[in-house]
Structure formats: structure tokens, C-alpha cells
Amino acid sequence: MTHNLQATTTLSNGVQMPWFGLGVFKVEEGSAVVESVKSAIRQGYRSIDTAAIYQNESGVGQGIREALAETGLNRKDLFVTSKVWNADLGYDATLAAYETSLNKLGLDYLDLYLIHWPVKVKYKEAWRALETLYTDGRVKAIGVSNFQIHHLEDVMKDAAIKPMVNQVEYHPYLAQQELLAFCKAQNIQMEAWSPLMQGQLLDNPVLQEIADKYGKSVAQVILRWDLQHGVVTIPKSTKEHRIIENAAVFDFELSAGDAARIDGLNRNQRVGPDPDNIDF
């Protein structure tokens, strides 16, 4: 893995996706999200992840435009992701939802568009819509979020195009090793949301001991663990110093023993919903 913030993984269709990015879940629309996006791009981030349900796509788009003007970067230098929400999972509804997201973002295309949750029955029609968007050249890559192995198998059974990314809750208390192995075998890039378990891992004594050993923060150790497992990661922050700190994970490497100790913390514990019981 290249040791810098612009390092990319190659998706199954040849598209380059940054290993590291900014997530904006629960970042309030308006100045908060605008400034977070601008700060991240200023600091060298090239991937921004939002979703229709976050209700901050307009602010993300504004932040992107202002950051591009400020830095001299081009749109093609960035990797922008959004997701279709559960209420819009259907062929026509998903196509319309994509247009709505583009309009709010003020963009001509997305680099990655995901189905947000595997709502029963509905996600297969939504996947057909994503295939259409991809085939028509409207989006660079398509994928899913929160899909378990059986969901992926169900989609791929009838799909013309295999999902390129699966974004899931992933952190030391939810290591999802079987899912990660399956995605790697299928050449589906796994991506972590809530990599820091919404802050619940920061006081873990094992992680603190490892962090002290490397002269790093617990957050940096966790994010490095993600990367060493071949998992794209998108930590959220609205504070510039934290955005900088989170990205300072390319100048050290966890030993195999320390990575295994972190693996051993797994509890199959979620902070988000169970993907098999989606009722929203």
C-alpha cells in the first residue's frame, strides 16, 4: 500500500478509489459541513462520502466548489460518493433519487453511488437502476452499503454488473472477518463506516497500549488497522485538527502481532442497525 493520503485502490472496473476519505454522517447542513469538506480537501483528502439521508448534500457540494476554487484542483481530482435512501429503492425512484443528489451536490456525475441498506425485495430493483446509471456513463462506479454475504450473493445472482464496493460498519468490535474475506474473493472493495465506533473505542486499554507503543492516538491505530486489512476508511470530523490527525496514519505500520491483538477485540457489536432487520 502506498504510504500517502492520495493513495488509491483499484476497483474491479479499473476506477481508482482513495483509501482514505472524509465521512459526513451527522454533520449539519450549512457552514459545518461546508467547512469540514473544505478543510479536508485543503489538507489533502480527495474522497468525500455523503448520502441523501444525511441531508447535507447541498453543503457538501458548496464545500467542494469552494475548495476547488481555493486549491486549484479539478473535479476529476476528487472522489465523491453518495447513497440512495431506503424510501427510493425501486428502479424509477432510484434513477430519480440519483438526479436529486446530483442537483443538490451541483455535480455532473458521482464517482460512486451506493444502495444505502439492503431493504428486502426493494434492493434488487434499485441495483438494476444503478446498473443503468453505470452503463449510461452517469456514474464512475456502483456498489452497496451494509450488505451481508447473503445479500451480495442475492444481488449477484441476477446482476449484469457485480457491486464494486460494499461499505459497512467496521471497527475492532465488529471485525466482520467472513464478510471481508468474501469481498476480497469477489474483488469487491470493502469500506468502513463508523471506523472509530462513534468514539466508543477510544478508551479501550489494549488499543491505548498499542497506541502508546507507536506514539500515536487510539484513533490513528484503528484507522491504520483498517488500511492494513485492505479496507477503505472514511472517518468523520468537523474539527480541522482532528481531520489532520486522522490522516496521519501513513508514517507507521502495525506489526502482525499488534494487528492480531486488535483482531482479537472483536465482539460482533454494532452501533448501527442489523442489516438483516431493516425496518426504516
UniProtKB/TrEMBL annotation:
Site annotation Lowers pKa of active site Tyr: residues: 83
Keywords, ordered alphabetically: Oxidoreductase
Top-rank lineage group of the source organism: Bacteria
Gene3D superfamilies the UniProt entry points to: NADP-dependent oxidoreductase domain
PROSITE patterns, per the entry: ALDOKETO_REDUCTASE_1, ALDOKETO_REDUCTASE_2, ALDOKETO_REDUCTASE_3
Keyword Oxidoreductase annotated: yes
InterPro entries: AKR, AKR5G, Aldo/ket_reductase_CS, NAD(P)_OxRdtase_dom_sf, NADP_OxRdtase_dom
Residues the entry annotates as binding substrate: 116
Boundaries of every NADP-dependent oxidoreductase domain copy: 32-266
GO molecular function, one term: oxidoreductase activity
Record-annotated active site: 54
Family according to the record: Belongs to the aldo/keto reductase family.
The protein's name in its UniProt record: Aldo/keto reductase
